[in-house]
Design brief:
alpha/beta; Immunoglobulin-like; ten-stranded mixed sheet; single chain; 20 strands; 452 residues
């Protein structure tokens, strides 16, 4: 297989697709792990921040404003303490925050906070006071400059096959959500024109729950939402959806992003940011009843890590403006970054660590992909590239490097036998006006290259 990188041909700015849902903390009110901060995440989205201790007392609107009969103007009606302890270290580390205004997912038979607020205008006022606390110093607050404020999560439902207890995020109608979004977005934006508001973190952007069956194709929740927001002249600074990847791999990224991008353009939202607010690689070895156990395990090994690297590469190449991996919390099935309880970083952690090095260069340059071998290159202070092989067999790659003057290549490998801790320097050869390197990519692997 022959692949080409041309460092003389810039393509696009590097985008912050290596963000996370939540932060890695030993306790919910405890210190953020230094290894997590070392990833230099561009953004942390606060959603499902309820595990394992104290989660009923922070982030969610109903946790902060517990008495629905209270006056939204009364600072004493709010409990910000634990949420402050969560957010302050993130902002001190220079990490942007996407604050999800709404509730944590509820899978249990009895639901508590997934019902539509009785008074959307009052709920909007409560949300605006949360913004005011963190950005304007209200109620012994701060001036943290939190930019992203997301209104609710997955109001379009979820797969009924895995949610037998009913809707886990929104028990109202589509129209009730549209009205709630509009009330909150308008109110927040009117008083805080410098922040960005958006939603709605679509559960499955290419289909919906129809009569209790998850049905690909009907997308009217999305299009009706856009029609409603446009008619009400409500702001939509960013649109969020969720893109969990199964064995179909990065093709799902391309399909979903293309649909979101085209639809937003069709409805006049060309300037709206396109944000994949939840994603992970749910890779199963085979189709068996314990498939979820399989993909939880694979999220931490070379199989999941190679797919994570391929997804980061493909989201950058496709044009996704921002993305957040689900989830960085330690005691979560979807937590692919650290082994618990040792807190040893995984191969998936290494994928994010190495992608961040390319992000720091600033500019994506021309490269190509083939046969599920993915390439991404970036230029800045350094000339770097990534390769990811998501195939179950090795791939031999002849890499042609143009637009660069270099003598050798420093290569870092991550696969079943290597954990991205060793670097190997190899000489480059010149042929037909380009530099060449022959690289064997093991099954389920990725590599990071630096030109010297």
């Amino acid at each position: 297989m022959e692949l080409t990188i041309d460092f003389s041909r810039p393509v696009a700015p590097m985008r912050p697709v290596h963000g996370f849902n939540n932060a890695a903390r030993q306790l919910d009110y405890g210190e953020i792990l230094p290894d997590f901060l070392a990833l230099r995440p561009p953004v942390v989205r606060l959603h499902d921040a309820a595990y394992p201790y104290g989660g009923g007392h922070y982030v969610d609107v109903d946790n902060i404003f517990r008495d629905k009969t209270a006056d939204p103007e009364d600072p004493g009606a709010y409990d910000f303490t634990l949420t402050d302890l969560y957010i302050l270290p993130l902002r001190e580390a220079g990490i942007d925050v996407m604050y999800r205004l709404g509730c944590t997912i509820e899978h249990a038979p009895k639901k508590y906070n997934v019902y539509p607020p009785e008074d959307p205008e009052k709920w909007a006022s409560v949300c605006e006071h949360i913004v005011r606390h963190y950005n304007c110093g209200w109620a012994d607050g701060y001036t943290l400059g939190i930019r992203y404020w997301e209104i609710w999560n997955e109001p379009d439902g979820t797969d009924p096959k895995i949610e037998p207890n009913g809707p886990p995020n929104w028990a109202g109608t589509a129209e009730q959500y549209y009205a709630l979004y509009t009330a909150a977005a308008k109110h927040i934006k009117r008083l805080h024109p410098d922040v960005l508001v958006g939603g709605y973190s679509s559960c499955y952007i290419l289909g919906k729950n129809v009569g209790g069956k998850w049905t690909p194709g009907p997308t009217d929740f999305f299009t009706d939402f856009l029609s409603y927001v446009k008619a009400e002249n409500a702001p939509l600074d960013f649109f969020t959806w969720h893109g969990y990847l199964g064995n179909q791999g990065t093709k799902k990224i391309d399909r979903e992003f293309a649909f979101v991008d085209r639809t937003l353009n069709d409805y006049g939202f060309s300037e709206t940011l396109r944000i994949d607010a939840e994603w992970n690689c749910c890779i199963c070895d085979e189709d068996t009843p314990d498939y979820r156990r399989q993909f939880y395990i694979n999220m931490q090994n070379e199989k999941g890590a190679s797919h994570v690297m391929a997804a980061l590469i493909e989201m950058q190449r496709a044009g996704v403006d921002m993305a957040m991996y689900y989830d960085a919390q330690l005691w979560k099935e979807y937590g692919g970054l650290f082994l618990v309880p040792s807190l040893e970083p995984t191969k998936t952690y290494a994928a994010f660590r190495l992608f961040e090095k390319l992000y720091r260069q600033g500019t994506q340059v021309l490269s190509d992909c083939a046969e599920e071998v993915y390439t991404l290159a970036a230029a800045g202070a350094q000339r770097l590239f990534l390769l990811a092989n998501t195939n179950p067999e090795p791939k031999d790659v002849v890499l042609h490097i143009c637009g660069a003057d270099a003598k050798s290549l420093l290569l870092t490998n991550c696969d079943a036998e290597n954990d991205a801790s060793q670097r190997l320097q190899t000489e480059l050869t010149e042929k037909n006006g380009s530099l060449q390197a022959e690289i064997t990519m093991p099954a389920y692997s990725f590599a990071y290259g630096e030109l010297l």
